[in-house]
Structures are given as structure tokens and as C-alpha cells.
């Protein structure tokens, strides 16, 4: 199981701020995103968007890295930041 | 780099309640009486169009990310002190969202560091901003010029901010 | 250019007594609640080496010269308000010499305008600054980089300050 | 007669902050400076320095202009500015 967090407008699309996602073994980011969206096309598109950043265990993942998600990870999906 | 990294940690505050930017600048200036130059920027909720602004963040990540910006600014500019206060939660028009203040011996370092830190805070820290007007809730996306402004600090050879 | 030139006149104050920069910034921010961005710079007498600083000026010329800088800054940047307070006379370490604050809708205009106005005040306004340390009195000449910084605003095509 | 004002270190050299300078007719800036210095070599050098700016009747004169000083004028000699 992983803990998945949604921020900003991704939270509105997912209709929750976090959700437990059960799975075994290790998953590629692509497979994990499909699992998280689980048939919700809007959410699937939003999670795959170029502008959506991913943090694993509160560390922002560089876009260039092939991420692997493990059970126990905290995975955050983040739309473009707008602070200040 | 005149102070230990621990100071950079204390230099950053994320607050849930309204704060007093000018009181903070006064305290910051008093704490850096040996500095000749204090530059600051205060960003506020604009009156008029917006009834309220709501700001959420990724708490486990925010403070550490901003402390990294302070570290970067201290490496790039000759600073005696940095103060960053960023509000989260729901706030009303006129209230301060963010304060950045920098102290240095010469004005160019203080001003450029404030500019740099604000660029970072706009697009590189895990904050999300929503405007509320009547029934309408609208997420704010960063403007293209904000993204471009932040990117120019990424090139270590760039001295744009000091020109 | 959203306010008549008369505002530029009132925006500039030359004072003979100590003033409270943060109190002034707070009043300025309250007066421009419709602006989202307030940038400021406070220059102080550095502690340590100097016992006192004495600043003289050419009264008949000073206010008009600085009002001209404000006019220039308003033409160059998109500003909602400007506040400049410059102290003259004898002042002690820690006391404020100068405050420049600018209000605008977006941070880049406010920050660049403060930068521009400080460059002008350093080298283009009739002030003369003297350090007093023990028996020694030393007139301060502008630094070469201050002169260069002010010159870059002279070219109307230059957008350095907005980069 | 003109009213002459000295600022900053020029005041220290002239040993006064202002001085009345009697003359008739109109004088070129060069002739006026010689009259003001009246044999004081240090002051003459300081007034002629490239960095010394001149204001006539509280208006800074562009360096490129051939100034003419008239009786009744207020003439200020100013070393490099150092404000802020």
C-alpha cells in the first residue's frame, strides 16, 4: 500500500486530499498512475500532464528519473506551484 | 555565509494566522544593525476582485524547500541575514501573503536577493493558491513570466540579478 | 501614471529628525491596499566604524530633483505609489538615512523601481555625506559602481531593471 | 554681485558655505571661477575639477553648456553627490 496525496486542483479532480492505494511489489510511475486513477479518465490525464510534478516521501522527483514506487511510499501529485 | 546554516532554518516561517510585515521588518532590521542595507518585499491579497485567497501547501516539503532557496541566495549574494514569512490558509484582501527581507552591507545584494527569493517562492515552492469570489473558486496557475523569472537564477553563470 | 503629478511632490520628504521606516512602510501599504506588491529599501548608518554621519544638501534643489526621479520611475514602471524619505543633518549608527517604497500590481515593477530610485539617490541628487570618527571627518565620494548603476537608467532603451 | 555657495568638501576648502562675490556685467564661468578663487590655488583647482558640478539659480547646468554668470545669480559649486 502507498499513501497518495493530491494538491491544488488535482485534489478537486481526485475529490480527496489523500487516499491509500493498495498494491504489492514495485511499480513503475506509469503503472502506479494507472492504478491511482483506476479508470477515472480526468484524473488519469491530470496525473500524466507534463506540468504535474511528483514527490516521493516528501522529496520532489526530477522529471528525468524513471521512478519506481514501493509499498510504504508517500507519493504526492502536484500541479504547478503558485506561491508568493 | 557569515552565519551557520541553523540560522537559515530559523529564517523561514510558515504561518497560519495574519502577521505584521512591518513589525517583522523592524525586528529584522534591529537584529542586523551592523548591516547598512535592508530590502524587503511584501505581497498582499489585492482588494477589489477577490473576496478571499486560500493557500495550501505540502507541509513536509515546504519549509525544507524554502530553506534551500535561502541557502542558494546566501551562496549567490553577500548577505548578513534573510527573513521569509509565508502565510497559508484562508486570508482576506489587504492581508499579507508573503514577506521577504534581506540585510547586507550594500544595497545591490539585498535587492537582488529579495528578487531572487521571490522568484523562487512564486514557482518553485509547493504552494497552491485559490481565489474565492462569491460561489466561484479558481486555482491560480503561475504566469509564464514568473516561470521565466525563476529559470534565470538556475544558470550559475547568470548575473542578471546583479546587473 | 495613475495619479496626478501633485502626488509625486507629496511622495518625497526631506527630514531633519530620525524617522520610523517601518511605520512609514505600514502607512504606505495601507494607503495602497489595492496594490498587491510593496517593495522597499531602507539604508541605515552602519554601526562599528562610524560614530556619526552628517548629511548636507542643497535644499532649493533637492526636493525638485528627487520629484524628477519619481516622475521618471512612474514613466518607466507600472507603479501605484512611491514614497521617498531622505534624512539630512547629523545621525547616529543604526538610524535610517533613506527609505524608498514602491507599490504596484506586480512585484517586478515595484522591485525594479526601488532599485532605480536608489541608484538615482546615490549619485544624482544634491546630497553630501560625511563620516565622523573621533577627530576625523571624511567626505564620502560615490563609488564607481554606484555611478555605473545610475548611468544604466539613462538609456531609454535599457530594460536592465526589468529583466 | 552674485551669491556663491559651496557644498561638501568644497565648503571645507573655501572655508565657508557661502560668500557674496561682487562684479559688474556678465562673466564666463571660467572668469567667474577665477574671481571666486581670487588667488587661492586649492580652491581654484577644486572649482575647475571635472567632477565639480555647477548650479545656477538652483538649476544644475549641463556640463556641455557655456555658462554665463550675471549679477544677482545664485551660483553653487558642488562636488560629486553621495546620497542614499
Oligomer: heterotetramer
Under CATH, the topology of chain A is which?
Answer: Ubiquitin-like (UB roll)
The structural domain count of chain A equals 1
CATH superfamily of chain A: Beta-grasp domain
Structural class of chain B: alpha+beta
Q: What is the 3D form of chain B?
A: globular
Question: Termini of chain A, distance in Å?
Answer: 35 Å
Unreliable stretches of chain A (pLDDT < 50, length at least 5) are none
- Percentage of residues in DSSP E strands of chain B: 25-35%
Strand runs of chain A, count: 7
Strand content of chain A: 25-35%
- Chain pair sharing the greatest interface: B-C, 37 and 37 residues
- State the strand order across the main sheet of chain B: 1-4-6-2
Question: What would CATH call the class of one domain in chain B?
Answer: Alpha Beta
Characterization of this structure:
The complex is a heterotetramer, with two copies of chain A (84 residues) and two copies of chain B (163 residues). With 84 residues, chain A is α+β, with helices and mostly antiparallel strands. Helix content of chain A is 27%, strand content 29%. Chain A has helices at 9-14, 29-37, 41-48, and strands spanning 2-6, 18-21, 27-28, 53-56, 59-60, 68-69, 74-78. In chain A, strands 2-1-7-4-5 form a five-stranded mixed β-sheet. The N and C termini of chain A lie far apart (35 Å). The model of chain A has no long low-confidence stretch (mean pLDDT 95). A four-stranded mixed β-sheet of chain B has the order 1-4-6-2, sandwiched between helices. A four-stranded antiparallel β-sheet of chain B has the order 5-3-7-8. Chain B starts with a helix and ends in a 12-residue tail after the last helix. Mean pLDDT of chain B is 89; it is low at 1-5 and 158-163. The chains are: A alpha+beta (84), B alpha+beta (163). The interface between B and C is large, with 37 and 37 residues. Strand 2 (37-44) of chain B pairs antiparallel with strand 2 of chain C, so a sheet runs across the interface.
Amino acid at each position: 500500500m502507498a499513501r497518495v496525496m493530491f494538491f491544488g486542483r488535482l485534489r478537486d479532480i481526485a475529490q480527496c486530499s489523500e487516499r491509500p492505494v493498495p498494491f504489492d511489489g514495485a511499480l513503475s510511475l506509469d503503472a502506479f498512475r494507472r492504478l491511482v486513477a483506476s479508470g477515472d479518465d480526468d484524473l488519469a490525464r491530470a496525473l500524466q500532464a507534463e506540468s504535474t510534478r511528483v514527490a516521493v516521501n516528501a522529496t520532489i522527483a526530477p522529471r528525468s528519473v524513471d521512478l519506481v514506487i514501493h509499498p510504504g511510499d508517500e507519493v504526492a501529485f502536484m500541479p504547478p506551484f503558485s506561491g508568493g | 555565509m557569515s552565519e551557520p546554516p541553523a540560522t537559515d532554518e530559523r529564517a523561514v516561517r510558515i504561518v497560519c494566522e495574519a502577521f505584521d510585515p512591518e513589525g517583522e521588518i523592524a525586528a529584522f532590521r534591529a537584529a542586523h544593525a551592523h548591516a547598512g542595507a535592508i530590502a524587503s518585499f511584501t505581497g498582499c491579497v489585492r482588494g477589489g476582485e477577490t473576496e478571499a485567497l486560500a493557500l495550501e501547501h505540502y507541509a513536509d516539503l515546504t519549509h525544507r524547500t524554502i530553506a534551500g532557496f535561502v541557502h542558494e541566495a546566501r551562496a549567490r549574494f553577500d548577505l548578513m541575514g534573510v527573513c521569509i514569512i509565508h502565510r497559508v490558509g484562508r486570508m482576506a484582501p489587504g492581508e499579507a501573503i508573503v514577506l521577504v527581507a534581506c540585510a547586507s552591507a550594500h544595497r545591490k545584494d539585498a535587492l537582488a536577493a529579495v528578487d531572487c527569493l521571490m522568484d523562487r517562492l512564486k514557482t518553485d515552492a509547493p504552494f497552491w493558491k485559490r481565489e474565492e469570489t462569491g460561489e466561484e473558486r479558481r486555482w491560480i496557475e503561475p504566469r509564464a513570466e514568473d516561470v521565466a523569472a525563476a529559470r534565470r537564477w538556475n544558470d550559475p553563470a547568470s548575473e542578471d540579478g546583479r546587473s
